[in-house]
Amino acid sequence: MQLLLIHSDYIEYEVKKSTPVAEQIENSFKKGRLDEALTAFMAVESTDEANPRDVAEKAVTEIKKTASQVNTDNVMLYPYAHLSSDLSSPKVAVSVMKDIENSLIDSFNVKRAPFGWYKSFKISCKGHPLSELSRTINPESESCGEVVDTEEEVVSEALKAESTAKSYWKVLTPDGVLHDVDDFNLNDHENLATFVDHEISKSRAVEKVPPHVELMRRLEIADYEPGSDSGNMRYYPKGRLIKSLLERYVLDSSAREGAMEVETPLMYDMNHPTLKKYLDRFPARQYSIESDKRQMFLRFAACFGQFLMSHDMTISHHNLPMKMVELTRYSFRKEQRGELVGLRRLRAFTMPDMHTMCEDMDQAVEQFGRQYQMSIDVLKDVGIDVSDYEVAIRLTRDFYEENKEFITALAKKVNKPVLVEMWEKRFFYFVLKFEFNFVDALKKASALSTVQIDVENAERYDIKYIDQAGEAKRPVVLHCSPSGAIERCIYSLLEKASMKAEGGEVPMLPVWLSPTQVRIIPIAERHMEFAEKIASRLQCRADIDDREETVGKKIRNAGQEWVPYVVVVGDRETESGNINVTVREESRPKKPSKVEMSVDELNSRIIAETAGMPQGHLPLAQKLSMRPRFI
User: Fold this and answer.
1) Per-residue confidence at 173, pLDDT binned at 50, 70, 90?
2) Separation of alpha carbons 175 and 179, rounded Å
3) How far is CA 9 from CA 35, 220, 238, in A?
């Protein structure tokens, strides 16, 4: 069981919508509030099914202990499935929570929020040292009440250094002025203010479900996989199409920059002398496994394979800058449980990973600038503009002093203030790094594109090139992910669409990424032949809603699926040959934009909108009556 214990001024909730596993409740149960309460957010997990009563007893022990420490008599029990992706059956979950409620009710004023309902809630956390505690209840522990915070894991020296590194936080404006973050007026930069708070507090855990989680399920893009480890997702046909289009686009963009695509192994020997040293320089938690009595780790980037490959190559200065890229499906990082939610942060993810070997620091800086612009262009084509993300630049003070003009140019390029994290000495393998960070609806920031200048690994991996004088030299290495994790791009697009909807706009994906680009709705059976002719003439992903439903419902369904172009065909369209097209991008809520055009005009419009982007076939049957439901 996962527990998140919050000591609050108040907690209140209201049910909004039932799920298929919702428990039956009375009206009095649909709203609830407790003041001066300890709120126990909880997720009952599949491993708890072995001994549910033992789990309930241990949870009660932990709640009683914490309630005593914070001196409260009020306890709110709140089912919160998103603390885990390895959930128990609903029956077991409800049973465990009722057992906990019954065990506490004699000693506390207890309320329990209903299980299986979408709920809105408000909570005011008190903010003292014991007001936020997370616990993992171990059902297999022999000692009643024993709690473990984390399972045993490999933690790199760099990750430990990251927690103790002294950072100096600055804001760099496009005019080149470096401000102390406390002295800079953030009132006119709401997103940057949110990002600054997120970075300095280093609070990564989420307190509620971000909007994209419901959207990824409702749109049948992706879902949690209870049969796997937390942070490993399943992708339905629509999601697989979106992922594949993004993957192909980023690889194509890297190829246009001269990158050679390679493929490297998923696992490596943890005791390999070179890799062991690098593990301690990379701030990430690893999955470790045993194979043939050797301790192995699953890669968390493509660095290992590409660096080992570079070590074995013969490289001339004529080859530099030399770029290699791999689309790592998958990279693995043992992210902490409280941070795993939806597509925002995963343990298995797809990362485009490009490395550039440069002659010297001057060439590395020049390539860094090119790849900075490349990342801006990639995200723009994906549908994420400069206004959607905040820039973080992380560097040593020495590097900044030697490259002030170049660093200022990075802020000028985005034409807005950027956050700078500066260190007096280098803690990691890089001297300069940038990230583009998307700020979502819950005010959490997630890194997308990044480039780093690496000054360690050429020596560590004994990578050399032959210079003009015929001497062996060490290159400077750039790490680049032009888009960041592919899954995180989808997360950002869904979160952005949700925020647009909150602002009164119609949410949608870019047309080139929309699983269905045109939905054709015949009014009656006699219009099916014409609908099929239209679909055959369109050079895009066009489907036909041939179900036995009302036209109104079909139109609403197309809207719920964010279909960019919807064509309703009846007698008039069949006779004239022209069609009326509802254009989603030009519509407003309850005010659809309808344009009359020919089929060829619609075809030309879509071809123009998707020009230069990867194409793909419909991920599902063309006729909706033939499609299964995944959710």
Assistant:
1) very high
2) 11
3) 6, 38, 43
| C-alpha neighbours within 13 Å on the C-beta side of residue 509 | 31
Cα three-residue angle 55-56-58, rounded to 5 degrees: 65
Query: What's the rounded Cα separation, in Å, for the pair 432 and 14?
Result: 47
The angle, 0 to 180 degrees and rounded to 10, between the axes of the packed helices 211-218 and 486-502 is 100
Residue 472 DSSP label: E
The model's pLDDT over 84-139, given as tens digits with 9 standing for 90+, comes to 877 888 888 999 999 999 999 888 999 999 999 889 999 999 887 677 888 888 77
Q: Can you tell me the distance from the alpha carbon of 172 to that of 438, in angstroms, rounded to the nearest whole number?
A: 18
Lowest mean pLDDT among 304-318, 326-340, 487-501, 552-566: 326-340
Look at the block and give the residue holding tokens 């496994």: 289
Q: Give the DSSP letter string of 294-326.
A: EEEEE-SSSHHHHHHHHHTS--BGGG-SEEEEE
- Taking alpha carbons only, the member of 616, 352, 335, 383 closest to residue 491 is 383
Annotated binding residue at 479? yes
DSSP-H helix ranges across 265-386: 273-279, 303-311, 361-382
What are the pLDDT digits (tens) for 452-493?
999 999 999 999 999 999 999 999 999 999 999 999 999 999
Q: Which residue has the tokens 């990691």?
A: 428
Ordered structural domains, the chain, with CATH: 1-134 (3.50.80.10), 166-174+208-265+298-491 (3.30.930.10), 509-624 (3.40.50.800)
Query: Model pTM?
Result: 0.76
Element housing 220 (H / E): none
CB 523 within 8 A of CB 568: yes
Mean pLDDT of 36-47: 90
Residue 336 has pLDDT above 80, yes or no: no
Residue 355 assigned as binding residue: yes
Contact criterion met (CB below 8 Å) for 113 and 79? yes
